Structures are given as structure tokens and as C-alpha cells.
């Protein structure tokens, strides 16, 4: 995708804070990114780094207590501060979302046809019962539910996890959205089902001409299917670029740590030694310490600059940005993937 | 559905039999029904033996229990120590109690659930804060205090304010005026005067029950609604672009209804034996009075029937709760 | 009517997300995000409790009530059984509240002394009820939840059975035949019919805790069932036990007061708040102090206990109000 195409969704300096009993949780601390039409953007980062909160902010689904600043533009229209009624017209119609856990994301007391129909009718008030039903069956067929015309009368609990997630996707695409945000759509599913669901999502993207934001904590999931990648850490974007950039020339130690923790698709016999999770935990989002948020866990940390100055996101290549004081050193390393295993596995 | 109901009834029956056995043990241990007779000086031995025989006290424990049980199953609840039909007395008091509790319970549920839902939807608003604090206080206050306050404090002042000290508007004693409709007062006979009379008597005890009961429902409905409002499927509903009214009513409330209906129907089962204090404070001759009488005078058959009626009500409404649950929640296999 | 025992819905946090997404991080990272520094669990609970203002105020008031009931009688100049004579030359109003008798005089006794003693008996009865019923309920719930299957089924059917019996009536029937000092018997009877709620709660806790890793670990090294129950699982249910036990104190005080008010509870020589209220109710309008003081103390006990329970619940289980507006 070339950079000249105007973005369909543009997020600028988004911050989200939650006042809680223990202090203000700074869940998202200045996130910017663009989604272009028909693009697939992968967002990765470990649990709690603000992926879901960012996507909820886009959908306008955060609790009232959340304090949001920055800008979220859909086709040049600012979404932050829209009236509830205007926002409802966007939700499900222009931007739709698939959630993580299909077991709880559907209302247990209504048939799936009813729930699909509700999504259809929300933006097609003039549809009559028959139209709604035939569209529901059509959607279920699109997402690969066998015997869709009878399954439409089943309750959610009568579907398996994978099938439910298909129904959820059917609900999300009911009104041909321009952007589909999939928040960990396969995390709660069996490994065997995960690939099928992802494949289907990509198929649908081509059929629907939609852009997809694919959120995950597992780099292995997005490998090979995203155009652009964005790595998040502690409420910030720490690296962003094409999928090739991030996979093959990562310029931020955290991205490397994430890469190191997936079963690597290389033939390298030493790969096993690299399979090592990053030690330690992300910083508190209530009192974020100064300096690079990754510094306590970073093998490259210099202990001075890293712990005092938060590195800005800087261009490290065409369309490739990273937030690290030492990204040049990484570029010079011959096998940066060894960064994490070297510290722990004596050879 | 039918087989589910049958299955549940079949489970309830042994429960009732066991409960009746426990009740029988309790009643046998309440005391000696003929204590009074025995302590009097010149009562002939024969008369005591006669009474013992009439009440079955001369039989061994199990024989007594099974004799009582077989009669009870056939609808014969036996006679009191004063040799009156137990069922007459129980059914009369049951009527009095039901007149009080059913209306009060319906009011409590409607008021409580409405307040709870509004509180949850407008969480942290001034309404929510007020309702939460108010219902917490009322929920924590003893019935004894609320009832006494209404009777001895509010009623007297209000009646005085209305200038009706002689013929108070809010009656505090009994469920109806004694000798209300007689030959000398024909104007009091008829449906309208009788209803008015009843309402002036029922107002305060009903208010007492509503005040202490609705708060519990408000708290429960609020907590349940907060839970469903935060459920993933409600988020999904919002993500579809549905309007807030639909999200709240069709999604959050519809799911909150399941536990609320269950709790309400279970509570209905406890109503008959549940207004004893209110009845006593306002001196109604309901089931509470029967219990106090049956215990103090050690009236075994009366007490057994009391236990039976209240226990059957509890079991019955537990059954209703299960059925309603199954009706409201498609995940329950019938 | 006793306040209906309305179950609070259990807020089941969906832990699956945390577990699934935690593959990259330490298991405690989720909690660590919320605490400025690592505090010990108890300190955190105490801190959360102390921030619950009504609960803190209630704790103070309740402590004062306990002192009033247990120390007060030693300090106050009149004893509960001291028969007072009308002082020479006094008017008939001498039984009304005065400096000498702040709560007035009832049937020749000082009402303040009576109320102190009644409060003491009410609290004593409640404590015995709670110790007995909580112990029994915890054992039943623990055994049912740990062993599951037939044991669980039998115990839970027994629990259902006990719930079918109307408890005020049952206790009244048993209490009728007791002669002499009655308060211990009454406590025992009340406890017999008060353990079911906590048994159900603890069973639920055990059903979920028994599947946890640390229990698996204990089992795999061959720990015996009693050891797992008491050393491994039970300590983890301390929160619900404390909260329920606290609320049970209030319920027991009210249950006892109800019975005594009906004339079916404690009998002389014992007393209780309910008993004093019963004796005073005939003169609620003419000599209000004999009636309203014990009613007020009863209200205070019930309110403070409920607030303390509420504060404890928040302190042990803060996830319900994580977000503050
Ligand atoms: N309603 C909320 N109140 C307080 N903190 C929240 C709330 N929602 C999310 N958070 C916090 O915000 C951070 C980011 O969460 P989230 O976006 O869900 O992470 P993830 O990247 O795993 O999707 C986490 O620390 C989470 O605990
Ligand atoms: S800035 Fe320093 S601490 Fe942060 S990632 Fe780069 S090297 Fe590591
Ligand atoms: Mg998430």
C-alpha cells in the first residue's frame, strides 16, 4: 500500500485515562496511526498495553469515566465528541468490531438470527422481516456456517467457539463496514480453528473492500497476513512499519522480544534456544516511571539515558519508525534475535 | 417443559416429607400440651387421659407421626387443644396474612426493581447515590423499628394533623374494626365501607413491609443490572449501533430479569411466615398470631399445620422459580 | 419479617482473558498495575477498609456499643436488678428521664442499666450464634465443595431441607420448653438454623478453588484431604468468611430480638434488647423512653454491622468498584 492514499481512519495523539481508587490509570499515552482503505494493520503487544482500550476509543465504547484526548478521524470526520446519535450511525455501519471472547460476546437469551437481524435493522430501518432473515442467512453463509438457514434459529450456546466467532464476524460485516477492528479474534479459540478464522477474515476483506485492524498479543497470528504492523508497549506505539520491516529488521528491543517468544518459522536449530519470554512485567500505568518504559526489562538499556529520557518515535527507514535510543546499534547487530537468549542462556 | 416440571415436583415431594418429619420432632419437643390441665388441682385423672388420647399423646412417637401424616395427606389437619378444627383457624389467618403480604410484596418488587434499574443505568448520579444510601439504610433497619415508628410516631402525628384523633384515618390495631357492621350501624354494611375500613387498617402495615422489603430488591436489581450492563454482549449490542434504550431494555434488562425473577419468586414462598413481626406490631390476627398462640399454648396440631403450610409455600415457589428460570434462560435444558 | 436474605450476585471476573493474555508476562502483573507499590495483602485490605468512611464510623460506634454493654454496667451507679423506690417527696414524674436516670425508670428499674444489660445479652447471643453457625457452615460447605459428587449432593439436599423449615418458628418451638437460664439454648437453636447461607457460599468457593494450580500441586505431593482443605484452600476463603460472619452478627441480633419481642425468646432471669422492647411496647406513647432507647440501640447495631460488612466486602473484593467516576 502506498503512503499517498488518504487514510480512511486516522488516530492522532490518542490518550485514555481511567480514574480508579488506586490512582489514574494511563491506559493509552499518545497513540497515532493511520488505516488506509483495504489495508490490514496488525497491532501487537502484550496483555494490558492498551490495544483494546484504543480500539474501544475508536468505537466510542469506553465507560463514561474514561478521559479521552486526541483525535480520531474517520474520513476526515472527527469521532471524539460526536453526539451519541451520530456515533451510533458510525458504529456497526462504518466501523465494526469483533471481540475477543465469542462465548460471552453474544446475548445468551436470543437466537443468533435475532441478534444478526438486530445488527442489520439498526442501519436498515426499512427492511421487512423477510429481508432481514434472508440477509441473516446470507451472512451466515458468507462466514461459512453450514446449514445456515436452520442454524439461524439456534441459540448461541448451541454453537462451538469457532462457529460463534464466525457468527460474531457475520454481525460485524452485516452492514459492509469500511473498517473492521478485530480485537484478538482468535485468542479464545482452539489453535486449529484460529487459522481458519483468520483465513476467512482475509477472504472477507477482499469481498467487502474493507480495511482490517487485527489486534493480537501473538506475533505468530499476524505473521504473513498483515501489510503494516504496529508494536505497542505500556500505552504507546514503540515501533511501526511494514510487516517486513518489523519482522526482519526490528529496530526496538521489545519487538525483538516479542519475535523471540513465538515459535520461529526458520530452520535454524538454535531457534529453540531463542524461544524465551521477556522477563519481568510492564510498568505500572498509574505511576509511569520516567525514561523508556521498557528499560527495566531491556538488555540494551544503558542505565542512564534510557532511564531518564523517554525515546521519541523516530524514523528509522521509509515508513518505518521506532522508539529507542539505541536503534542504530540494533541495525548494526548481525543477529538481533539473540539479544534476549544471550542474556539468559549461557553457551 | 412438562417432564422438567414433573421431575422437579418429584424432587420436592421427598423434601416435604423430610421437612414434615423434622417439624414433627420440633413440635414434640415444644412442651406438654396438657401442662395447664395437669397443674390444676382437681382435674380427674380420667379427663387427662381422655385428652391425651384425643391428641394422640399416648401413642409412641412414630405411630403418632404416621397417623398425623396420613391424616394430613388426606386433608385432615386434626383439631386444636381446644377441640376446634385446625384448618378453619389456619385458613382464616392465612386469608388475613395474604391480604397484607401479597399487595405489599407486589409494590415492593415494582418499586424496588424500578429504582434498582434506574440506579444502575445512571450509576454515580445523584439519583443513584440517594437511592443506594436510602435503600442501604432501610435494608439495615429492623422491622421492629420501622413498624413501631410508623405506628407510635407517624400515625399519631398524622391523625392529629388531620384532626381525626377520635376516629383516626390511619388505624394501627387489627385488620378491621371490631363490630363494624351491625344492626345499629347499617351504614357500615356493604362493599365500599368495608373496603375503606380495610384500607385504613392496611395502610401502615403495608407501608412497613414495603419500606423494609423494596430496599432489598433495589439493591439486588442494581447489582444485577450493573453486572449485565458491563457484560460483553451489551458491548456487542452497542457496537452494532443500537440505541441506548434498546441496549438497556432488550439486552441488559432482559438478562437481569433472570436472577431478579428467580429471587422474587423464591421470596413469595417465604411471605406467609415472613410478616410475623409486622402482624404482631399492628395486631393482625394472621399467621403470625397463630404461631405465637400455637407455641405459647403448645398446640401440636395447630403448629404442625402452620409448619406444613409455610413449608409447602416455600417449596412451591422454589419450584415456580426454577420453572421461570428455565423459561427465561434458553441455556437451561428442559 | 426479617430482612429478606437477598443474595448479592457474585461478580465473576472473567479471568480467562488474563490467563490467556498472560503468556508473555508474570502472573502478578495484572495486580501490579494497580498498586503503587507492593503491599502485603492484609495491609491493602486494611487500607481499603479504612477508606470506607461509613464502615470506619460504624466500627467506632459498634466498639462504643460493645464497651457500653460490657464495661458500662460496672461504671453506672444503678444495677439492672436494683429495685428503686420513689424518692420521698418526688412527683410521679420521677420515672421520666432525669440526670439520675437518663433513660428513665421502668417498673422500678433503671432503664439505662436494663438497656446496657440487654445490649450485652443481645451481643453475647449473636456472637455464640455466629461462632457456632459459621463453624458448622464452613465445615459443611468445605466438605461438600471439596469432595463433590455424592457427599456434596447429600449435604446440599440437607441444606435445602433446613431452608424449608421456617426458622423463627422452629427456634420458637424448641425454645418454649427451656427452663431456667435460656440465652445459651436460644443461641444454640438460632445457630442450628443459621448456617445454611455460609455453607453455600463456602461450597462455591471450594468448588472453584479446588481446581486451582496450588491445590493440584498440594495433591500431587500427597497432601491429605483435611490438610488441603484446612491449610491450602480455607485460608483463601477468609474474605467471604469474615464478610458473612460479620453480616451474620447483625442477622442474629435481629432474629433474637424478633423472637423475644414475640415473647418466644429469652425469658427472665435473662434479658435482651428484644425483651426490653416487648416489655416497653405497651407504653410506647406514654413513657416512650422505655421503648425507644432499646429500639435505637437495636437500629444502631443493625446499621453499624451492615456498614462494616459492606466495608469488608469492598476491602476483600474491590473489583466491583475499580472505576470511580
Ligand atoms: N475500565 C477500566 N478501568 C481502569 N483501567 C482499565 C479499564 N479498562 C482497561 N484498563 C487498563 O488499561 C490497560 C490497557 O488495557 P487493554 O487495552 O485492555 O489491554 P490489552 O492490550 O490487553 O487489550 C490495562 O492496564 C487495563 O487494566
Ligand atoms: S530506549 Fe533503551 S531501554 Fe528503551 S528499548 Fe531502547 S535500548 Fe531499551
Ligand atoms: Mg485486549
Summarize the structure.
Chain A has helices spanning 51-59, 84-90, 102-105, 112-123, 129-142, 148-151, 161-172, 191-208, 219-222, 243-248, 253-260, 271-274, 305-308, 327-332, 338-344; strands at 9-20, 23-35, 40-44, 67-74, 77-78, 95-98, 179-183, 211-216, 228-233, 236-242, 314-317, 320-322. Chain A has 347 residues and is of the alpha/beta class.
CATH superfamily of the largest domain in chain B: MetI-like
Structural class designation of chain B: mainly alpha
CATH class of the largest domain in chain A: Alpha Beta
CATH fold name of the largest domain in chain B: MetI-like fold
> Over the alpha carbons, how many angstroms does the gyration radius of chain A reach?
21 Å
Low-confidence residue ranges of chain B: none
Distance between the termini of chain A: 43 Å
Overall description:
- The complex is a heterotrimer of chains A (347), B (334) and C (325).
- With 347 residues, chain A is α/β, with parallel strands linked by helices.
- Chain A has helices at residues 51-59, 84-90, 102-105, 112-123, 129-142, 148-151, 161-172, 191-208, 219-222, 243-248, 253-260, 271-274, 305-308, 327-332, 338-344, and strands spanning 9-20, 23-35, 40-44, 67-74, 77-78, 95-98, 179-183, 211-216, 228-233, 236-242, 314-317, 320-322.
- Chain A has an eight-stranded mixed beta sheet with strand order 6-7-8-3-9-10-12-11. In chain A, strands 2-1-4-5 form a four-stranded antiparallel beta sheet, with helices on one face.
- In chain A, 50% of the residues are buried.
- Chain B has 13 helices and no strands.
- Chain B folds into two domains: 2-73, no CATH class; 93-328, MetI-like (MetI-like fold).
- In chain B, helix 5 (86-121) runs antiparallel to helix 6 and helix 10 packs antiparallel against helix 13.
- With 325 residues, chain C is an all-alpha fold.
- Chain C is 64% helix and 1% strand.
- Chain C is built from 15 helices and two strands.
- Chain C has a two-stranded antiparallel ribbon.
- The longest helix of chain C is centred in the middle third of the chain and has 37 residues, at 111-147.
- Mean pLDDT of chain C is 80; it is low at 1-38 and 320-325.
- The chains are: A alpha/beta (347), B mainly alpha (334), C mainly alpha (325).
- Chains in contact: A-B, A-C, B-C.
- The interface between B and C is large, with 60 and 49 residues.
- Bound molecules: adenosine-5'-diphosphate, iron/sulfur cluster and magnesium ion (MG).
